[in-house]
């Protein structure tokens, strides 16, 4: 191992605040430095979270989307997809069932679908909170400050709104008709309303490079994010980026590990996309700094329809089977499933408690 790289890893263990140039250096390990990078990230993860892994059950309640992001199979102009929407009572029932099989936190996720008004979503959140003891994350895209405020008052605890890249030019290229500035406005609004904020990026996007990846990692720190979702770009033939190659597991793991070094207190998922590219992808992510897994809790008849990318794993499994399987994966690497809500340490320090309805 190069002495300079070893010194950088030691600095990470001592809580150093890295510059962009240092992050770029960390993202370029030589082959014999890869294991040391992952082990250092794992040591930091263990120091903060112990050996517990937080589960977030994903409820994909609509695959309609009004956006045309170049990489996403849910994009409005994709005609090769069967669309669906769940009604409020279905969402509540699925959420309650997920809690009954052991989930303490759920992600209500959809495309950007204005069919679900803020009032409708507030009603769903209140009904879930009145029925079961669970933390709720929303992943429903860009809305106005007042919408976010009402959703927070209804009981939403967290909000996941990835921008996929912090490079303005690349963002605009990937997201036609959307504004990078508005995306950041949304994230800042959510922070001001005391949501736990989730952001993140994709690794292996066309036109991306190590410099833009380093900018992403610095951005996560500056935004003071609570959760960072990092997954590989997976090429979808039903999108304009279908001709490009997918990202790789190795590159994604490097970004994940360096993100842990730079942002030690965040919740980092070992993503489903990692597991879709490599049958041991989630295990590798958990051993490279991740502390969260996000299994699907949808009924089987809907799972194949939420196709952001092709060949997603676990689309034919029942929710209880997935829950049993993921616990086995976690136990196989010497970890345990957390029985708590999985708040980020930063959120706990700020005094953001999970909002329970009376």
Detail the topology: elements first, then pairings.
Elements: H1 3-13, H2 20-26, H3 34-49, E1 52-55, E2 57-62, H4 88-100, E3 105-110, H5 118-131, E4 135-139, H6 145-154, E5 158-160, H7 168-174, H8 180-192, E6 196-203, H9 210-223, E7 227-232, H10 249-262, H11 272-277, H12 281-286, E8 292-293, H13 300-303, H14 319-332, E9 336-337, H15 345-350
Parallel strand pairs: 1-8, 1-9, 2-3, 3-4, 4-5, 5-6, 6-7
Helix pairs in contact: 1-3, 2-9, 3-10, 4-5, 5-6, 9-10
GO molecular function: 4 iron, 4 sulfur cluster binding; metal ion binding; transferase activity
Binding site for S-adenosyl-L-methionine: 164, 183
Domain Radical SAM core: 51-271
Question: Can you give a write-up of this model?
Answer:
The chain is α/β, with parallel strands linked by helices. The chain has one domain (20-340): Aldolase class I (TIM Barrel, Alpha-Beta Barrel). It has helices spanning 3-13, 20-26, 34-49, 88-100, 118-131, 145-154, 168-174, 180-192, 210-223, 249-262, 272-277, 281-286, 300-303, 319-332, 345-350, and strands spanning 52-55, 57-62, 105-110, 135-139, 158-160, 196-203, 227-232, 292-293, 336-337. A six-stranded parallel β-sheet has the order 2-3-4-5-6-7. Strand 3, helix 5 (118-131) and strand 4 form a beta-alpha-beta unit. The mean pLDDT is 96.
């Amino acid at each position: 191992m190069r002495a300079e790289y070893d010194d950088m890893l030691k600095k990470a263990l001592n809580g150093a605040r890295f510059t962009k140039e240092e992050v770029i250096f960390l993202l370029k390990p030589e082959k014999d430095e890869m294991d040391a990078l992952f082990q250092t990230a794992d040591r930091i993860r263990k120091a903060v979270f112990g050996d517990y892994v937080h589960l977030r059950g994903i409820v994909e309640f609509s695959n309609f989307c009004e956006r045309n992001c170049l990489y996403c199979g849910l994009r409005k102009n994709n005609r090769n997809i069967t669309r669906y929407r769940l009604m409020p009572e279905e969402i509540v029932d699925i959420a309650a069932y997920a809690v009954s099989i052991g989930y303490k936190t759920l992600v209500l996720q959809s495309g950007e679908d204005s069919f679900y008004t803020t009032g409708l979503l507030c009603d769903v959140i209140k009904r879930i909170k009145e029925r079961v003891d669970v933390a709720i994350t929303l992943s429903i895209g860009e809305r106005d400050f007042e919408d976010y405020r009402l959703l927070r008052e209804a009981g939403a605890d967290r909000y996941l709104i990835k921008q996929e890249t912090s490079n303005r030019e690349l963002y605009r290229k990937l997201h036609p008709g959307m504004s990078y500035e508005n995306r950041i406005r949304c994230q800042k609004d959510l922070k001001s309303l005391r949501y736990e904020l989730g952001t993140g990026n994709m690794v292996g996007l066309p036109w991306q490079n190590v410099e833009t990846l380093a900018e992403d990692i610095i951005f996560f720190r500056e935004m003071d994010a609570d959760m960072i979702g990092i997954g590989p770009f997976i090429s979808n033939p039903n999108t304009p980026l279908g001709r490009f190659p997918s990202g790789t597991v190795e590159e994604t793991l490097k970004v994940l590990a360096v993100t842990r070094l730079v942002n030690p207190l965040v919740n980092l998922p070992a993503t489903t996309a990692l597991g879709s590219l490599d049958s041991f992808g989630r295990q590798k992510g958990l051993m490279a700094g991740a502390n969260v897994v996000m299994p699907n809790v949808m009924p089987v008849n809907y799972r194949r329809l939420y196709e952001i990318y092709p060949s997603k794993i676990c689309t034919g499994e029942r929710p209880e089977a997935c829950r049993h399987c993921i616990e086995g994966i976690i136990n196989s690497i010497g970890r345990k499933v957390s029985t708590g809500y999985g708040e980020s340490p930063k959120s706990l320090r700020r005094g953001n408690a999970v909002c329970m309805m009376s």
